[in-house]
Amino acid sequence: MTIPDLKYDSHGLIPAIIQDVQTHEVLMMAYMNREALGKTIETGYTHFWSRSRSKFWKKGETSGHVQSVKSILYDCDKDTLLIKVDQKGPGACHTGHRSCFYTDISGRELSDAVFSADDVYGKK
User: Fold this and answer.
1) Largest CA distance in the chain
2) Which one of 15, 30, 41, 65 has the largest count of C-beta atoms within 10 Å of its C-beta?
C-alpha cells in the first residue's frame, strides 16, 4: 500500500481524529507522523507520536483499550486524518471516559467516567 502525499505540519505531524466505526462517536484526537501512520497501517492498530514525551505510543499499550483500525480517510486538503476504529475496552480517554470530548464549553462534564484511570494507570 502506498501512503498518499499528505500535508504534515512543520514538525512532521498530522492530526488524526479517531471515531468509533459503529456509533460514529469521536473518541479522541492525536498526532501522527509518517512512521506512526505506517505502523498503524502495518499493524491494524492505532499508533501516535507523543509531542509531550517525544516518542511513539500504541493506543492501549498500558490500559489494554486498543483501537482496531477499520478505515483511514483523509480530508480534501490532505492535512487531517479520520480513522474509524473498533474501540476495545470501555474507553479511549486516559481520564477514564469513553471519549476525550466529554466537557462542554462552559466546563460542564456531559458524561461520567466508564473506568477508573487510577486503577488502570496508577495514581499520580
Assistant:
1) 44
2) 30
